[in-house]
Amino acid sequence: MAQQSFMEKYVAAGTTAVSNLLLHHYHEIGMTTAELMVYIELRSYIDRGQGDPAVSQIARHLGTTEDQVYDLINQMIKDHLMVQKMVKSTDGKESMEYNFAPLLHKLQRLIEQQTTTTHQQQTKNQRQELFATLETEFGRLLNPIEMSLVNDWLDQDHYDIEIIKLALRETVLNGKYNFKYMDRILSNWARQNLKTPQAVKVAMKQFDEQHHYSSGNTQHGVQPSGQKIPIFKLNNTDSNNS
Fold first, then answer.
1. Nearest to residue 103, comparing CAs of 215, 18, 164?
2. Which residue spans adopt a coiled-coil conformation according to this UniProt entry (predicted)?
3. Tens of pLDDT, residue by residue, the chain (242 residues)
4. Given CA atoms 174, 177, 180, 182 in this order, what sign does their dihedral have?
5. Phi, psi at residue 95, to the nearest 5°?
6. Cys-Cys crosslink for 178: which of 72, 194, 217, 242, Cβ 3.0 to 4.6 Å?
7. What is the number of alpha carbons within 13 Å of residue 20 lying toward its C-beta?
8. Reduced to 3 states, what is the DSSP secondary structure of residue 109?
9. Within 63-100, where are the H helices?
């Protein structure tokens, strides 16, 4: 039989997949580099159907002693990074296997916590940016009542920040500079079920086109049929008080 080439041996040995999440965060879940190497060694056997590999082999591969490997395994069990479970094969024989479900649960909790923290920080930054934008456009600091109203838009009404910015744009373009005017715009959009910036922009475009068409027909002596309702309906009292 011809001797196997290096590449044939390389392919025949197989590969062991390790998630980049684990490689990048193992220290954060309380895992040492030595424990990570033991995990990779154990994983290489488990992936090939050997749930309880010989510690002597692992020690030889890592260039250390069996006692040190046992110490690392026991520490990982103590730190809830792995467990040893008794499993029964199809022929009824029982054997001990290593299981790393606790490690994955720890990693999952870490990533979820980091995601939540990142989202909370982004939300905080967006809120601060919104207040800064409002103060810039209004040319003054907001008073406590106005700040409370903006917080209600975000926390109680759950208006999208970009929708609030669109309402601010309409307020500025109409020269109102009045939070009551903005609130009326936002309430009207909510009644029309315009819950995304894209939906608001489409409705505004349709209103502008409709208004332009109506104005053009009026100039040529053609009266528009039916009543044209603007995208935000403000009664005369609100407009006069703005």
1. 18
2. none
3. 456 788 888 888 888 999 999 999 999 999 999 999 999 999 999 888 887 889 999 999 999 999 999 999 999 999 999 999 888 777 777 878 899 999 999 999 999 999 999 999 999 999 999 999 999 999 999 999 999 999 999 999 999 999 999 999 999 999 988 899 999 999 999 999 998 999 999 998 888 787 666 655 555 554 444 433 344 444 444 444 44
4. positive
5. -150, 160
6. 242
7. 0
8. helix
9. 66-78
Residue 164 burial (C-beta neighbours within 10 Å; 0-12, 13-18, 19+): buried
Angle at 218 between CA 217 and CA 220, to 5 degrees: 65
d(CA 210, CA 64): 80
Domains of the chain (ranges; CATH) run 6-106 (1.10.10.10), 142-241 (1.10.10.630)
Backbone φ/ψ region at 141: left (φ over 0), alpha (ψ -120 to 50), beta: beta
Residue 174 backbone class (left: φ over 0; alpha: ψ -120 to 50; beta: rest): alpha
The tokens describing 72, both together, are 């690392």
How far apart, in whole angstroms, are the C-alpha atoms of residue 211 and residue 227? 11
Name the residue type at position 158.
H
Give me the phi and psi of 206, to 5 degrees please: -65, -40
Q: What are the structure tokens assigned to 30, written together?
A: 């309380």
Tokens of 207: 């209103």
Tokens of 132: 């800064």
Taken in order 189, 193, 199, 203, is the CA torsion positive or negative?
negative
Please check whether residue 232 is in contact with residue 218, taking contact to mean a CB–CB distance below 8 angstroms. no
Question: CA-CA distance, 8 to 80, in Å (whole number)?
Answer: 39
